[in-house]
Amino acid sequence: QVQLVESGGxxxxxxxxxxxxxxASGRTFSRYALGWFRQAPGKEREFxxxxxxxxxxxxxxxxxxxxxxxxxxAKNTVYLQMNSLKPEDTAVYYxxxxxxxxxxxxxxxxxxxxxxxxxxxx
Length: 122
Hints:
By secondary structure, the protein is an all-beta fold.
């Protein structure tokens, strides 16, 4: 497992932007697939974005064109740039990592951050 710590959450108005960061420990960070998930009260954890060790990215339809996932292996950090935020984006956002899985199912990830709250007001 790799240790993950999210930061960058906060409260913004609709249309605003936030950049989430997830700092990781571990010497093999570059080989991990990384994902961002979110969970709103009363709802199941939802896939948001992922990036494989090879750089392939994928997003849930609702955030395509607005969110961008990226990674900086030199800094052991994965980012989620969130633009044009909407109230429905409100949730706790988690980053996750896996060596053996790179899909969009949260059950495939074995390392998780503590989460960071994102609140978007209208």
